[in-house]
Design a protein that fits this description.
Strand 1 and strand 2 form a beta hairpin. By secondary structure, the chain is of the alpha/beta class. Among the domains are: about 190 residues, Rossmann fold (3-Layer(aba) Sandwich), CATH 3.40.50; about 100 residues, ANL, C-terminal domain (GMP Synthetase, Chain A, domain 3, 2-Layer Sandwich). It starts with 16 loop residues before the first helix and ends in an 11-residue tail after the last helix. The chain is built from 16 helices and 25 strands. A 5-stranded parallel beta sheet has the order 4-3-5-6-7. The protein is globular and about 75 Å long.
Amino acid sequence: MHHGDSPNVYSVPFCASLKSQGIGKKDHIAIIDGQSGESITYGDLFHRVPRMASWLAGHGIAFGDRVAILSLNSKAYIEFLYALAWIGAVAVPLNIRLNPKELHYILLDSGATAIFSDAFFIEVAAQVIQDIPSIKLKIIAAEPRDGWISFNELIHDKNGSVSIPETVSGETLFMLLYTSGTTGKPKGCMIPQRVWTGYAINMAACFHMGHSDVYLGFLPYFHVAGFGTAIAQLMLGGTLVTIALPDPPAMYALIEKYGVTFMFLVPGISAAFLYHEARKERNVSSLKVFIGGAGGEKLEFINDAETLLGARYYGIYGQTESGGKVTLADSDMFRENPVTYGHVMPFFDYRIVDEEDNDVEQGTVGELCLRGTPVMQGYWNLPEASAETLKNGWHHTGDLFMLMESGQVRMVDRNKYLIKTGGENVYPQEVEMVLLSHDSIADAAVIGVRDDTWGETVKAFVVLKEGAQLSRLEIDAWVRQSIAGYKVPRFIDFVTALPRNSSGKVMKDELKQRTTAPGQRVK
């Protein structure tokens, strides 16, 4: 798109929204750094970003160049991402939990020519890039170090200013978000600028997020929901409070101090936050919206969240390839039907299809397919995988859903986690929901394990609530009350916690690597 064209909202780069906010709301606080308390207004952000972009362009960062980022959430992180978007450069946010070998692979795969780090990760960053000659520019969000330029150089007023080039549009690739790599090497999801526009519109339409809201952004910015919800708040003219890591006492202090209205937590973190003693010492009356995962929280948690926080609970389903949030259910929907995933968000078109891509009937399980502005362009340097997932003009999510009589949808499971036992299909999530309905079970995950008789059989990993006692036979009896015998776990492994990734999803591939011992068999 060129400036002379007649643009629609999605053809405009998301970073262009900063102009209207910077002029129209120039004195409104845009970002507050939760660690330092430092803040910046929209007017100052609009003044600063074009100068940062000019500095980057003057130091060799061109349209389409990939720039890696290894950092905790911060105000500087968001400002830097804006500057990259401004000149059409491509951000490669790195998962801070990966080991150096995994980070090294992503840097090589993306072809990054520059890297941004904070002081906390500078040693790791330096180690990872030492044998990557393509990295020409190194920036640190701290004082300069050997070979590393301070972020302060970028934001200096002496830098010239640059406008958004005509080559930058909503279709311009802005971010490579690498998936967790559970099926092999991580794949870089190609996220163009239009995705964040679609994300912001869905946040406004579905959750009524707007200019008067304050969002506490602790979900990491290397995650589609972390950056998506943060940037949506800025595109809508509200205030973003950044926080580096989930820390309940610090989070409650920031809620009280800045009047936080919006929170988004994922399973694995949400309960630790909600039930922390720090809640009782702080005023949380500003909270309006609490977003969590659909299919991942027990009904008692949802009820407690609304009672203890006074906020409306929404559960969502999403994935990186689809540009973040895809479905939403409010607390009333969960109370009516705990397994619902709610409605598909309004700015998606969707189908549920069989293996031949034919639509299935209501009540029949099929793969959820999506199309719409938030969907990615494909996988970086993987044309065959891209063609497979985006075939026939629809993004094939790999997730099995069904349309219910209510018009809501429910996720049955990941296609790849389907268990086939003696010719019957077992959807792990169905078994997990039954396990989670037991008062003594805090968390649970179900996988298929090899079985010489049936091909596969069902195994459950169970986390008991503190102080609770439950035998394998008692669990077996509980599950049999609700579902068919072939779905009941034959093996149960009691564990203290489930391994989860940064988005709160259970890492089932890791569970599949664990030994199934005879002692875990239900007698």
